[in-house]
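Can't paste images in this forum, so I'm doing it all in text. The chain is below; anyone willing to post the predicted structure tokens underneath?
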Amino acid sequence: MQLFNQLVVAALPVVPKSVVKIVAKRYIAGSSLSDAVRVTQNLMSNGIGSTIDVLGEFVTERPRALHETSMSRDVVDAIKRHSLDSYLSIKPTSLGLGIDFDFAYQNISGVVAAARERGVFVRMDMENTPYTDATLDVYRRLRRDGFDNIGVVIQAYLRRSEQDVRSLLDYAPSVRLCKGIYVEDASVAFKDADKIRRSYRSLLRLLVDGGATPHIATHDEALIADAEGLVRERNLDRMQYEFQMLLGVREDRRDTLVRDGHRMRIYVPFGEDWYGYSTRRLKENPQVAGYVAKAILTGR
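Text version of the structure:
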């Protein structure tokens, strides 16, 4: 079955987009902000929070970056207006980080300021390594400018991540810890699954012991179980950490964690740029390739 799933993933470039879109419904709230609000409200009814993301990244034109900035502000307004247990996630390149640092900082800081006025938290996602330094620089500048409603992401597969975490601990940061998904060279990223897991475990302990608030973003059962053990070992209060998962992935395990008293937050993306996001999710989770095969065979 694993070989079959891998073959389906390898065939994704020739699978019709209409088929991928059927599968994408599992991972994406919909094309509009109202879809993300609806999904968040449904999650809230089950004691689960969300982080809302406008799909899109690697923007190269200023007008598009300004449009994405406006969309991010709309998300902040919706969170406040509907009293959602949610915050905003942004990809720095969608707000112009790949165009000009100061331009991007103006856009990002404007969104973060608007969010602070409304009591809303903002998380900057971490993209691939050409943007790691600049993203961390934006975070540090925001903190120096007095913003405390801002968090960042650390990717465990990067060799530099321990140094990055240590450099952030003075801020008592809110950090989403994930494995990492972008294709990176072996010179900058671990390729072996066990090494990535060891890095994740080590970074989680560094965050906890360093006074950070870790947001444990993984679907890896070994890492989830390890984190549960660490919570018990350190006798952590439930407000000192949080589990996070993607929409549509490991929902049974998600619900178990909630029943066991852990905070849970689901990544809820929406927007028109669904294809790239969906194919990345399928490549990251080949076990769901069966959904692609079912869609091809049944049309649903």
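Residues 62-81 form the longest helix (20 residues). The beta strands are 49-54, 86-90, 122-124, 150-155, 174-178, 213-217, 242-246, 264-270.
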